[in-house]
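Format is sequence with structure; example below:
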Amino acid sequence: MLSWASALAFLLLLPLAAAVLWKIWSERRARPALMFSSTGVLKKMAPGWRSRLRWIPAGLMVAALVLGIVALARPQRSDTKVKKSIEGIDIVLCLDISDSMVIEDMPPEKNRMESAKSVLKKFVESRPNDRIGYVVFRGEAFTRVPMTLDHQVLLDAIHKTRPTRNIKDGTAIGSALATATARIKDSTAKSRVIVFATDGESNSGTIDPETALEITKGYGIRIYSIGIGKDGQAMLPIETLDPFGRMIKRYQPIHSSVNDALLGKFASETGGKYYRATDDKGLQKVFQDIDRLERTKIEQNQYTRYAELFPPFLQWAVGLFLAAVFLGSTIFRRAP
C-alpha cells in the first residue's frame, strides 16, 4: 500500500506552477530588438535546432524540481502484518446414540438425534480456533474423533452418526463421561470442557456415573450437561422390511425419562451448567449459551513496516538538475 509521510510537501507545486506560467507569459510578452542594416537576409534564414530546443534546460530544471518535491513528500510502501495470539479451548462433545434418541418429539419434524446433530455442527463451525473431540455412547462408549483442529473430519463424523446395533444396548452415562474425560485429561489448554447430551438414565456400562464424575472433577474439567426430550410416554419409531422388501415404519410405546438430578450434579460440581431442551429451538439456545460462556481468547497485535521509496525520485531530480545546468552552460548557452 502506497502512502505519503509528508504529503504537505505537494503544496510546493503551487508556487512552482505559478513561476512556470509567469515565465512563459513574460517571454511571450517580451519584444527583443536588434539594430541591423537589412532584415531581408534574416527573414530567409530558418531557425536552427538549438533555437527549437532551447526549452530543454528549463524543462529539465522544472522536472528536477517536481521530482524533488515528490521525494520531499516521502512516498512509502506499507506492509501491515497482524499477529494473533490465540488461547484455544479444548472441548469434547459427548452424544447419546441409544434407540430412544430417534423418538420424534423435537419439532419441527425432527427426532432427537437429528436435532442434536444439526445443532452440534453449527456449534463446531462457530469455533474454528478450538480443538474438539467427539464421543458417542449407548450401552458402551467409544471415541469417533479424537481432539482435533480438523473440523471437517469432525463435521463428517457428526453427519454420519446413526443409532447402531453393533454396540451394546442401553445408556452407559458413567462409561461415556469417563471416555470423554480420558480424551481431554492430558490437554494443556487453560479451559477444558465436556458437552454431555443424553435423553435417558444410566442403566448400563462398567463405570458408575458417580465414579466418572469424581475422575472428571479431579482433572478440573467443566461439564455442560444437556437433557434432551420430554419425560413420559413416547412412541419409538421402528423400521422393518415387509415381504416385498419395502421399508415400513411402525411405532412402539416407550417410557422416556431424563435423570435431571444426575446431569445437574455433573454440571454443578464441575463449574458448568445444566440445561433441559425439549424442542429444536430450545436445543439451539442451549448451544448458543455454551458458545457465549466458553469463548476463545484472541489477542491481536498489528505491526506496520514502511519501506522508503523517495531515493529514486531524489536521484533522478539531482541528475536532471545537473543535466539542465550542463546543457544551459554549454550547448544551449545564450549570449547576453
Notes: The first helix runs from residue 13 to 29. Residues 70 and 313 are 7 Å apart (CA to CA).
